């Protein structure tokens, strides 16, 4: 079974404001509300690609209830821990001449609620896949992903971590199956600005030296570079298209990569499917469907087990 964990899920309010001006009343020309949070997005796209998963995390207030209902409508199984106080956040994504995002702080997570989540995670075992994705509310300790991985260490669970800075660096000693920083996040972790593919590969390998098994570095419109545990270094370029909403492109890439890998056991195919899935989501108003993804594949979908 695949499990995703989103510590700070959201509803995403995606609005088009043609000419955003700070300090003025701005009017939208388009608005939509989608379920959000990185792990939840991975669950939605996995479901679109035919993989069942269970979305874990926390929900609070009526926004949390709505989030869960929307995820269930999109075919995702959820098992959220309810929080007694606070409200699941609403993240605002503004599409104008540029894309801007305002992400909420999110509700406080109590020790009891955290224990309940750990109780659910304790049931995972051999053959399960766990995706830990996104930021954590500032009420939680920075080592929370590390604690989860320490608890699950040695159970033969394939763990994917999509996080930044110390949240990611601290888990590497537990040998995550896959990590997916983008090129900016990779540079930030080492305090450098990465200028070339060679530099990206060099720093991806440094993350492997610290314990990561496979490192997938996404580069938005420039595609992605994968460095695998068996020494393969592979770059893909994204298909051409018009970006409509790139929120969730990275999460889609993770879902596509996992699907490709689980269906074929082939890292190269996983990278190709991951790239097409990321781009397919960037080219539509929300996370891509299977049809939208397969339309961007250069080989028959059956080659990826779809
Ligand atoms: N402008 C674009 N054109 C084509 N493909 C894109 C574009 N932006 C993203 N993608 C696809 O999505 C993948 C992931 O994108 P990106 O590197 O932006 O991830 P990210 O930074 O984790 O994104 P997010 O946090 O918004 O989900 C890219 O490797 C590419 O395949
Ligand atoms: O605040 P975080 O956890 O870093 O990111 C949250 C978020 O921006 O990530 C998703 C896209 O990847 C959105 O659905 C969501 O709003």
TrEMBL record:
<dbReference type="InterPro" id="IPR022463">
    <property type="entry name" value="1-PFruKinase"/>
</dbReference>
<keyword id="KW-0067">ATP-binding</keyword>
<dbReference type="GO" id="GO:0005524">
    <property type="term" value="F:ATP binding"/>
</dbReference>
<dbReference type="GO" id="GO:0005988">
    <property type="term" value="P:lactose metabolic process"/>
</dbReference>
<dbReference type="GO" id="GO:0009024">
    <property type="term" value="F:tagatose-6-phosphate kinase activity"/>
</dbReference>
<dbReference type="InterPro" id="IPR029056">
    <property type="entry name" value="Ribokinase-like"/>
</dbReference>
<comment type="similarity">
    <text>Belongs to the carbohydrate kinase PfkB family. LacC subfamily.</text>
</comment>
<comment type="similarity">
    <text>Belongs to the carbohydrate kinase pfkB family.</text>
</comment>
<dbReference type="GO" id="GO:0008662">
    <property type="term" value="F:1-phosphofructokinase activity"/>
</dbReference>
<dbReference type="InterPro" id="IPR011611">
    <property type="entry name" value="PfkB_dom"/>
</dbReference>
<dbReference type="InterPro" id="IPR002173">
    <property type="entry name" value="Carboh/pur_kinase_PfkB_CS"/>
</dbReference>
<keyword id="KW-0547">Nucleotide-binding</keyword>
<keyword id="KW-0418">Kinase</keyword>
<comment type="pathway">
    <text>Carbohydrate metabolism; D-tagatose 6-phosphate degradation; D-glyceraldehyde 3-phosphate and glycerone phosphate from D-tagatose 6-phosphate: step 1/2.</text>
</comment>
<keyword id="KW-0808">Transferase</keyword>
<comment type="function">
    <text>Catalyzes the ATP-dependent phosphorylation of fructose-l-phosphate to fructose-l,6-bisphosphate.</text>
</comment>
<dbReference type="GO" id="GO:2001059">
    <property type="term" value="P:D-tagatose 6-phosphate catabolic process"/>
</dbReference>
<dbReference type="InterPro" id="IPR017583">
    <property type="entry name" value="Tagatose/fructose_Pkinase"/>
</dbReference>
<dbReference type="GO" id="GO:0005829">
    <property type="term" value="C:cytosol"/>
</dbReference>
<protein>
    <recommendedName>
        <fullName>Tagatose-6-phosphate kinase</fullName>
        <ecNumber>2.7.1.144</ecNumber>
    </recommendedName>
</protein>
<feature type="domain" description="Carbohydrate kinase PfkB">
    <location>
        <begin position="7"/>
        <end position="282"/>
    </location>
</feature>
<keyword id="KW-0423">Lactose metabolism</keyword>
<dbReference type="Pfam" id="PF00294">
    <property type="entry name" value="PfkB"/>
</dbReference>
<dbReference type="GO" id="GO:0016052">
    <property type="term" value="P:carbohydrate catabolic process"/>
</dbReference>
<dbReference type="GO" id="GO:0044281">
    <property type="term" value="P:small molecule metabolic process"/>
</dbReference>
């Amino acid at each position: 079974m695949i499990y995703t964990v989103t510590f700070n899920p959201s509803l995403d309010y995606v609005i088009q404001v043609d000419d955003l001006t700070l300090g003025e009343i701005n009017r939208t020309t388009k608005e939509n509300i989608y379920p959000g949070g990185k792990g939840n997005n991975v669950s939605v796209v996995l479901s679109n690609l035919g993989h069942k998963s269970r979305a874990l995390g926390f929900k609070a207030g009526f926004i949390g209830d709505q989030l869960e209902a929307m995820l269930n409508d999109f075919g995702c199984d959820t098992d959220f821990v309810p929080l007694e106080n606070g409200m699941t956040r609403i993240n605002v994504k503004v599409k104008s001449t540029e894309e801007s995002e305002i992400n909420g702080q999110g509700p406080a997570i109590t020790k009891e609620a955290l224990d309940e989540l750990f109780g659910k995670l304790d049931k995972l075992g051999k053959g399960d896949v766990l995706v830990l994705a996104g930021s954590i509310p500032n009420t939680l300790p920075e080592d929370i992903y590390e604690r989860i991985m320490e608890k699950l260490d040695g159970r033969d669970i394939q763990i994917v971590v999509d996080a930044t800075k110390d949240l990611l660096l601290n888990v590497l000693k537990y040998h995550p199956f896959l990590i997916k920083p983008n090129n900016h996040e990779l540079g930030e972790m080492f305090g450098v600005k990465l200028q070339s593919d060679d530099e990206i590969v060099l720093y991806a390998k440094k993350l492997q030296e610290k314990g990561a098994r496979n490192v997938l570095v996404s580069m938005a419109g420039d595609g992605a570079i994968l460095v695998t545990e068996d020494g393969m270094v592979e770059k893909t370029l994204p298909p051409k298209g018009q970006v409509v909403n790139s929120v969730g492109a990275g999460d889609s890439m993770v879902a596509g990569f996992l699907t490709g890998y689980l269906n074929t056991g082939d890292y190269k195919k996983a990278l190709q499917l991951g790239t097409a899935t990321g781009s397919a989501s960037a080219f539509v108003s929300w996370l891509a469907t299977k049809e939208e993804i397969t339309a961007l594949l250069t080989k028959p979908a059956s080659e990826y087990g779809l």
